[in-house]
Each structure stands twice: as C-alpha cells, then as structure tokens.
Amino acid sequence: MEQRKIREEIFKILFEHEIVNADAKTRSKEFLEVNKLSKSKEEFFVKYIDGYLENEKDLVVNIKKHLKGWTYERLGVVEKVLLKMSFYEIVNCKIGHEIVINEAVEIAKIYGDVKTKNFINGILADLVEEMR
Predict the structure, then answer these.
(1) Domain membership of residue 11 as a residue range
(2) 37, 53, 43, 41: which is closest to 92 by C-alpha?
(3) What is the per-residue pLDDT across 62-93, written as a single tens digit (0 to 9) for each?
(4) Alpha-helical runs (H) found in 36-115
C-alpha cells in the first residue's frame, strides 16, 4: 500500500474518532488485521495514530492561533482532522511541509468541500511561514 493510501486510511480512522468519538487505537488494530502492511509501514501507521492522539489537544491550540476570521468550532470535521494531521506531521514529526501540504490537499479534494483544499493550503502556508 502506498504512503498516500495509508494517510487516507489514517484520515478515515481519525475522522471517525472526531465525529463519533470512536476508539482510534481499536480501529487501527482492526485495519491492520485486515490489511497486511510491511513492518515499516505498520510502524508508521501505529506511531502516527498514537502520536496524533497524544498531541491532539496541543494541535488544536496551535491550529487556533492560525485561524484568522474563523473559530475552531466553526470548522467542518474534514478540515479539523486534516489540519490536526498536517500540524502533527509538520510540527511534531518534522516531515517536509511540501509533502504534508500536498497530501492534505489531495485528501481534501476527495473528502472536503470545493473550498477545503484552498483553506487547508492557506492555513498550512501560514504555519510554515511562522516556522521560518
């Protein structure tokens, strides 16, 4: 399974966690039982879910600092999850922002509103600018 597809599956699990408070760790285990990944991809998957959940409150605080003219509560679930994933990857995992933004925009095109990709791109560009 390619990395983008893995991120998309992580997004689905975290979306479910956000919308109905599903246990993301249990859903992750179920996913991994059905989908055999290489050892390195499985480790990425598990580490990602665990790290995201451990840092979720801090991610929200950081996102709120970058919302101009919006409140976090007004965001849709797709936007909340994509922003938290992206902030987690850029800030906590130190993954290159070009990769993260591209992946977030591609997922936004599939699951978001027509304006979601531009909104996500703008917030992430602001984060990257601040980090420089």
Answers:
(1) 3-131
(2) 53
(3) 999 999 888 999 999 999 999 999 999 999 99
(4) 39-66, 77-87, 97-111
